[in-house]
Amino acid sequence: MKLAAIDIGSNAIRFQVSSVLETKEQVLFKKMEYVRFPLRLGHDVFSSNRLSEKSINKFKKLMQAFKLLLELYEVDDYMLCATSAMREAENGADLAKEVYKEIGLKIDIIDGQREAELINTAIRSYLGSQAYLHIDVGGGSTELNIYFGGKKIKTRSFKVGSVRILEHHDLPVVWSDMEHWVKENIKAEMGKVTAVGTGGNISKIYELARLKPHRLMSLKKMGEVKEMIAGHTLEDRIYKLQMNPDRADVILPASSIYMQAMEWAKAKYMFVPEVGLKDGMMLHLFERNSRQAKIAFVNKEDQSKGSKTLVMGKRA
Questions:
Q1: What's the CA angle centered on 123, arms 218 and 166, to 5 degrees?
Q2: What is the pTM of this model?
Q3: Domain architecture of the chain: domains with CATH
């Protein structure tokens, strides 16, 4: 089975094709293709509440390219999810309709809660029963999730993101709201809280921390890496630290969100599983197709016996 996920973010758009290798013990997703295109939709939306004609034209060309890749890789199923930039744009829904009509790709503009749910499917296997604050920082929004006892007990999306901060569109009232939410929902009786960080920026910070694989990163170490990055010019971040240009300017604003949330939660360490929305989308696609395959198999068996079957609660 080949699956594809397209994550339409505020700072970049990610496309991935994976083949699914299923055994009795586990399911493996082998990456066949990955493209990260630096189309910063948030630049338009967070200043004017609309996507510009230039961005729309580029976006459509990119969708056409992805449609060709989906066909060339003979993908069995795919999913496109758009987050904060498109959901806040006055013309975001119109663009999604145009893409479906002109190119044939259906874009799901998801809210913060759905975004958090999809990311949750990717990280839940990494978590134990202790208390965790999951921090997912995007270009336009930050999703916070609290886990305790092996379950997600609270979730909230905030309009604070790396591109928003970079372009001075973050509001003090939102920061205050986020602080209040964390402090109100992280209870003393939960004990020690470990942060879980997802998103491209925290993955790069973790890489620059040069820790041994799977080790936790301390808040202190994160601060040291942030200070080191701040000591480099934008050009040096690109050439010496090997950052993409659209990562080099937002990594410091993003690090401020991670660190601030950790301080509010009194979390001294962070786990970085290096998964995100596209991984949650892949798992969702796999579950959807596995379920359909089982239903199809049952239908075929029953039809051979000349009987009617129930499909998803309805008579076939």
A1: 60
A2: 0.82
A3: 2-110+281-295 (3.30.420.40), 127-271 (3.30.420.150)
